[in-house]
Amino acid sequence: MVFTINQLFNKLSVKYLPLITAIITVIPLPVKAATFLVTERAVLGGNDEVDWGSLGKVFNPSAPDFSVFLPNSFLATSQGGLGLDINIAPTNKPQITPPFIFQTLPPPGIRTNFAQGDFILFGGIDPTGFQPLPPGAPDPRTQGNGGPFSISFAQPVFGAGTQIAVDISNLEVETFITAFDNANNLLGSFSVLSTSSLALDNSAVFLGVRSDTANISRLVFSSSAPQYGLAINQVSIIAAPEPSFALAILVFGVSGAVLKLRQRT
Length: 265
Known about the structure:
By secondary structure, the protein is of the alpha+beta class. It has a single domain, classed as Sandwich (Jelly Rolls). The chain is about 15% helix and about 30% strand. It is built from three helices and 13 strands. Strand 8 and strand 9 form a beta hairpin. The longest helix is centred in the N-terminal third of the chain and has 22 residues. It starts with a helix and ends with a helix. The N terminus is likely disordered.
């Protein structure tokens, strides 16, 4: 039996219409993504996380071991197995230390306004800032490395964010987050005002972004006072889910149907 093109198309449309409809339902059509600011970790609703303590290199101010200092570029892996490439812009001041991780704790630990016990990724500091201050002295304003911090994801994500602070107490600064896609196109740039302290009260502001598609490949964190050290705690991530097994079966079924149709015609 020989079919004309129109007859073949009509038969194919009727026979496979339910299957085509199912595919369209499962695979949404591309839409223009919207990227927006998130200022609360709970609102971000992450399903993955990077805790800097997982790197196993934590600086202890009571027993300094400078071998735990980090390079300005290094790799990390989230709890869910997502790879991250971290790049901290180097400083041109040789007295400032390389980046390092510390756990914020009461004295003799390092105090911040993150939550007590948080592991903090810090850009670096002039070591004289660790010297004790005389009673009544003003809050220290020690020079440090303010980044920017760039975090690239091995696979694009729906969103990510972290709490952020600048190593300068009781002075309001502007902190920024900027998102890019995998072609380095700007998705959005946002900022909030924040004030750092030594209160260990979890008051460090949360700065995150979220998109309605998994198109965020890189985030950049910075501040309006780059001469002071920048610090972030754990990064919460909305990772894209793996393709479902049901979708794989559906695609395989369509491929088989098309192959059979070609064999018959």
